[in-house]
Amino acid sequence: MEWTIQELAARAGITSRTLRHYDRVGLLAPSRIGANGYRYYDAAAVARLQRILLMRRLGMGLPAIAGVLADEVDALDGLRAHIAALEAERARIDRQLRSVRHTLEALRSGVEPRMDVMLAGFNDHYKDEVISRWGEHAFQVSNDWWHGKSLDQQRAWKRDTDDLVAAWIAAAKAGESPTSEHAQSLAARHVRWLSRIPGTPTAEGDRERSIEMVTGIGDMFVDDPRFAAMYDDAAGARFVRDALQAYARTRM
Fold it and tell me: Model-level pTM greater than 0.85?
């Protein structure tokens, strides 16, 4: 089965000009060009266009899409990756739907909607970092856990977190060694804090991945300016990293 360029454009919801542009930049060539000069596309070309449109929907530019397709060894792996991305998008939309429904029902009932629930799915902080480092499962489980908390529970968690960060900053400014008993007790406290977050390797008791997570978090604190600022400055972030990595090497 084949489609002409006009048929494919109409079914894909794009223009023939777009398909010609994809051909010019090397993204999608027609399967064949007839004697009459018409462009024809077979199932393999349509499958490739499907993937291009998915990546465009995910916000990727054409050069990035070309790089993905050029580097790909197995098209099946690429399709699996897209399925995972679409499932993540569906989960995000599901969270948004729950949020909007909550707001609607609360307003209908004459009660004040929960502020945290209203924004669930609209601004999932550090989503990309979590997924890239520890997988979609870790993000989904931990994100559902967080948004399942009441506002008071979220505030209590935030206070615990702030207390831990303040203790790290105080130890760094006091000139503690990352391997000192006090620094290592803070590292142990930090790991316990992580183990309270469902979906993380520390919560699931996976020792090898827990060590990888703790050392990776230490690197992230130094590499990401947002975390360096959280620990007061770059020196504070390095202190936390070194203490966590020492703890992971010797005590986990």
Answer: no
Task: Indicate which CATH number applies to the domain containing 13.
Answer: 1.10.1660.10
100 lies in the same domain as 59 = no
Q: How many domains does the chain have?
A: 3
Tokens at 203, concatenated: 């919560």
Asked if 45 and 90 sit in the same domain, the reply is: no
Full pLDDT tens readout for the chain, 252 residues: 899 999 999 888 888 999 999 999 999 999 999 998 999 999 889 988 988 888 887 767 788 788 888 876 566 776 777 677 777 777 767 777 776 776 677 667 776 655 444 445 444 555 666 666 667 777 778 777 876 777 678 778 888 888 999 999 999 999 999 999 999 999 999 999 989 988 888 888 888 888 888 888 888 778 776 666 778 888 898 999 999 999 999 988
Is the residue at 138 inside a domain? no
Cα–Cα distance, 172 to 238 (Å, whole number): 9
Number of residues written out for the chain: 252
Nearest to 230 by CA among 190, 195, 199: 190
